[in-house]
Write a structure and sequence with these properties.
The protein has 188 residues and is of the alpha/beta class. It has a single domain (3-187), classed as Formyl transferase, N-terminal domain (Rossmann fold, 3-Layer(aba) Sandwich), CATH 3.40.50.170. The chain contains six helices and seven strands, in the order βαβαβαβαβαββα. The chain has a seven-stranded mixed β-sheet, covered by helices on one side. α2 (40-47) links the parallel β2 (27-34) and β3 (51-54). α1 crosses α6 and α5 (120-126) crosses α6. The chain starts with a strand and ends with a helix. Bound molecules: 5-O-phosphono-beta-D-ribofuranosylamine.
Length: 188
């Protein structure tokens, strides 16, 4: 039986689309949730025949846990088994992280544990690193921490800018994420 996966997004959803298009035998994306009603990824999911809903965090003001409880209820109503974050721009509270522990994954555009947080491409260039890449990891209480499930790397070229790196890392992400999610789906 394929594991039932939900993908949480906030924007264009290119990783979500990669997870959908990969047609892995170990998992199936059956639900997409965005915290932003205008996220382009919602339409993209619907066009692929996947249920896609918005749960607007703004409705809840500062009450992050109430927002997460609505997401959690939607996930359980759809019998979701694994939750994949893909450009989901809300930090999750311990309530949600613990509820989905071991079944909650994220993709991050750096070779973790280097460069958690934002602006990873600019930071890697400023540091003069020779290589860069992306990581798929289980989500733990701290941001961008948790067991690393897989990484893909590239060599930084002379003349690389944050934009050129972002484009090349994104390509790596689209190949890495489906592979790591399928591997997780086989063991949970
Ligand atoms: C990706 O670079 C991902 O690693 C980061 O946010 C970006 C999301 O892009 N967490 P997309 O919405 O999947 O196109």
């Amino acid at each position: 039986m394929k594991k039932r996966v939900a993908v949480l997004i906030s924007g264009r959803g290119s990783n979500m689309a990669a997870l959908l298009d990969a047609k892995q035998d170990a998992y199936e994306v059956v639900l997409v949730i965005s915290n932003r009603p205008d996220a382009a990824g919602l339409e993209r999911a619907r066009a692929a025949g996947v249920e896609a809903i918005a749960i607007d965090h703004k409705k809840y003001g500062k009450d992050r846990e109430a927002f997460e409880r609505e997401i959690d209820a939607a996930l359980r109503a759809s019998n979701i088994e694994i939750v994949a974050l893909a450009g989901f721009m809300r930090v999750l509270t311990p309530f949600f992280v613990r509820a989905w522990q071991g079944r909650l994954v994220n993709i991050h555009p750096s070779l973790l544990p280097k460069y958690p947080g934002t602006d990873t491409h600019a930071r890697v260039l400023a540091a003069g690193d020779a290589e860069h890449g992306c990581s798929v990891h289980l989500v733990a209480d701290e941001v961008d921490a948790g067991e690393i499930l897989g990484q893909a790397r590239l060599t930084i070229l002379p003349g690389d800018t944050p934009e050129t790196l972002a484009a090349r890392v994104l390509e790596l992400e689209h190949a890495l994420y489906p592979r790591c999610l399928a591997a997780l789906a086989r063991v949970v």
